[in-house]
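Q: Given only this backbone (139 positions), what sequence would you predict?
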């Protein structure tokens, strides 16, 4: 199977809360749509420093992470990030990769949105068993 990419909308959920409390106007909520690599082998969502600068997500903490090339590094985790694809939404944190690294959508937000990779079409799809909306497994 080749690489899979999807257009994913990221919204600063902190901005949404600020708008709800009337600290900022609704049109000031930062959002961006990014063509992200979909990687079910990665747990977390990852953005790069450029996206972080543009979106202004709040720093949560530093965490160590094992990268695809086998290196372990320490990275900033930021959030909350609202993630949208089709009729699905997830709220998560994101690991900030250096520079202009490719952003990726990992397994945790994929599970929350109840989406999957279609192997033949090599694309992200909503779970066909639940087309009307996500159904979370609590087993």
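A: Predicted residues:
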């Amino acid at each position: 199977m080749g690489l899979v990419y999807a257009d994913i909308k990221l919204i600063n959920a902190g901005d949404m809360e600020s708008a709800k409390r009337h600290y900022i106007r609704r049109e000031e909520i930062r959002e961006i749509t990014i063509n992200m690599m979909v990687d079910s082998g990665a747990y977390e969502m990852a953005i790069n420093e450029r996206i972080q600068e543009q979106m202004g997500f709040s720093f949560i903490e530093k965490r160590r992470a094992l990268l695809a090339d086998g290196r372990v590094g320490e990275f900033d985790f930021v959030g909350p990030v609202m993630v949208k694809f089709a009729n699905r939404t997830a709220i998560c944190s994101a690991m900030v990769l250096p520079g202009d690294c490719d952003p990726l959508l990992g397994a945790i937000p994929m599970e929350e949105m109840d989406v999957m990779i279609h192997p033949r079409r090599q694309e992200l799809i909503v779970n066909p068993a639940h087309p009307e909306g996500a159904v979370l497994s609590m087993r």
